[in-house]
Amino acid sequence: MYTSEKSTKLTLAVTYIFAFVLAGLMVFAYPIARDALGPGNRTAYLSAVIAFYICCPAGWYALYNIKKILVNVLSDTVFTKETVTLLRILSWCCVFVAAVSFVTMFLCHIFFVFTIGAAFMALILRVLKNVLARAVEIKEENELTI
Question: What is the mean pLDDT of residues 54-64?
Answer without folding.
Answer: 97
